[in-house]
Design brief:
InterPro entries: P-loop_NTPase, Sel1-like, Sel1_AlgK, TPR-like_helical_dom_sf
Distance between the termini: 61 Å
Pfam families: Sel1, TPR_10
Protein name: Sel1 repeat family protein
Largest sheet: 5 strands, parallel
CATH topology of the domain at 21-181: Rossmann fold
Strand content: 5-15%
Organism: Amycolatopsis acidiphila
Helix content: 55-70%
Number of strands: 10
Number of helices: 30
Length: 530
């Protein structure tokens, strides 16, 4: 099996692999424990090569299974064929999340007798992050993976390793400026082409930018050739837009966009009547001055996308581009077509707009069809208006099916009515599965009944993961046992995150030791926040 087969970007400059020992150990530990592992990082940072090295170290004689289409693994599952004792290789995981190709249940079935290794570009990871009420349809799959983050700056090779691998001082200097992966993968060539083309070849640039817009709207399938002019026209004005109707000029622009910059790279990658944009182009355009996807392009996506794609388009519009009206249009169309994720997300948007009647209608429809997040959201709406019995019903439905937010919300409901033992049970269930609010609430519950050591454990878990109220409560627990230095650390963390009680307590601690000026600063901050 070659590196090309594994979809490692072919280098245009021959530079030996430079080890990343810390990250290699991290990936290897997950493989040895047979945990699905997902390596996330920017394009050309070395994700796929790192995965290949780790697999070679831990499972050198294990056969690899490389699905040849987004639905290949699902098709095997439907035929009741389960791979056994294979490394399942999912480079660019987002390719396999379209059209229901991979599901959470399928990943769980596969991992019992296989090793699953995946990579994902950082901007894809960012766009798929959930909130407590909104969730991309892909998140159920992503949350099953152990995350390994590969950072372009923090995980650079050491100067000594680079010196040994690359004797040429000029090449080392270029690598220092652009990064090892970017240098060997022609990143600078890509940036230069795009920078020049924006003014020198506006039609070609518009074709590339249009395909990038398609991806930035959350659409993961390749762009059909017939949509290229429509996507590009949204990036042009006046006479330039009309020029795309000229076959000769259009063909020249497309030839430029799809031509090879070098033997391994082109800005647009053609395949079977469709086009994809080279991933480094996406990274470059994400930092461009105008990152706004044109309104006509959003409408084109809504017109052309299937129901499951519309759910992703709406999520991208709402969470990344802050365009709730577009999200609403996408989710409405998908919900009308019966998509449960869209129904749930549309309910969130409607509630934010104050239309709780319609929000409840969509949540009920999705909940009755078995959608767990919709059950949790419906329960929260019912609890807000005082329908506690029915709220509990829906929380229990979702919690018993494993939904973490519902477990937490059920715990809150039970604690509020005094059923502490069962509240603790649900908090523990959710906390053990990584729910931050449940960790914090469990810590507070334990603190109130005097189980200080375990309370500190859970507050520490949540604080380390960024929960600001947990930081404050951890500081209280630490101060009470005399660990003032640690208490100050956590109160500072919480205060810097905007937690007013931590600001107040930090001010008291500073005042008591004579730091009056800083104490007054934090008290002033607390007064303005409260």
């Amino acid at each position: 099996m070659s590196l090309d087969d594994l979809r490692v970007h072919t280098a245009v400059v021959d530079v030996p692999y430079l080890p990343r020992p810390t990250k290699e150990r991290e990936v290897c530990e997950h493989l040895r424990a047979r945990r699905p592992v997902l390596i996330v990082g920017p394009s050309m940072v070395g994700k796929t090569r790192l995965a290949a090295v780790a697999v070679r170290q831990v499972l050198p004689d294990t056969p690899l299974l490389l699905p040849d289409s987004p639905t290949a693994l699902g098709d095997l599952d439907k035929a009741d064929i389960t791979p056994d004792q294979h490394v399942i290789w999912l480079d660019d995981l987002d390719r396999f999340l379209i059209n229901g190709g991979l599901t959470a249940g399928l990943i769980q079935r596969l991992q019992t007798s296989n090793w699953i290794v995946a990579t994902l570009r950082g901007h894809e990871w960012d766009r798929l992050q959930p909130t407590d009420q909104l969730r991309s349809p892909e998140w159920d799959v992503l949350r099953l993976f152990q995350l390994v983050l590969l950072d372009r700056d923090r995980d650079r090779p050491t100067d000594e390793d680079l010196r040994c691998a690359v004797p040429d001082e000029d090449i080392r200097a270029r690598i220092a400026r652009t990064g090892i992966g970017e240098y060997v993968g022609a990143a600078q060539h890509v940036r230069d082409q795009l920078t020049v083309a924006e003014s020198a070849n506006p039609l070609g640039y518009a074709l590339v930018a249009g395909v990038a817009d398609w991806s930035r709207m959350g659409l993961t399938r390749a762009v059909p050739a017939e949509l290229l002019p429509r996507l590009a026209k949204a990036r042009l004005t006046g006479r330039r837009r009309d020029e795309l109707d000229n076959d000769e000029k259009y063909r020249a622009a497309l030839d430029w966009a799809a031509r090879e910059i070098n033997p391994t790279v082109s800005l647009l990658e053609p395949a079977d009547g469709t086009y994809r944009v080279y991933d480094l182009v996406l990274d470059h355009l994400a930092t461009a001055t105008d990152r706004t996807v044109p309104a006509t392009t959003w409408q084109l996506a809504i017109d052309e996308a299937a129901a499951d794609e519309l759910t992703a388009v709406g999520y991208q519009a709402a969470m990344i581009h802050e365009l709730p009206d577009i999200a609403g249009a996408a989710w409405q169309k998908a919900a009308d077509a019966g998509n449960l994720d869209a129904m749930s997300n549309l309910g969130v948007l409607l509630k934010e707009w104050g239309d709780t009647v319609e929000a409840e209608r969509w949540w009920r429809q999705a909940a009755n069809a078995g959608h767990l997040l919709a059950m949790s959201n419906l329960g929260a709406l019912l609890q807000e208006r005082g329908d506690i019995a029915e709220a509990e019903h829906w929380y229990r439905q979702a919690a018993n099916a494993g939904h973490l937010f519902a477990m937490h919300n059920l715990g809150v409901l039970l604690q509020e009515r005094g059923d502490i033992a069962e509240a603790e049970h649900w908090y523990r269930q959710a906390a053990n599965a990584g729910h931050l609010f449940a960790m914090h609430n469990l810590g507070v519950l334990l603190q109130e009944r005097g189980d200080i050591a375990e309370a500190e454990h859970w507050c520490h878990q949540a604080a380390n993961a960024g929960h600001r109220d947990a930081m404050f409560n951890l500081g209280v627990l630490l101060q009470e046992r005399g660990a003032t230095v640690e208490a100050e650390h956590w109160w500072r963390q919480a205060a810097n995150a905007g937690q007013p009680e931590a600001m107040h307590n930090l001010g008291v601690l500073l005042h008591e030791r004579g730091d009056t000026a800083e104490a007054e600063h934090w008290w002033y901050q607390a007064a303005n926040v409260s």
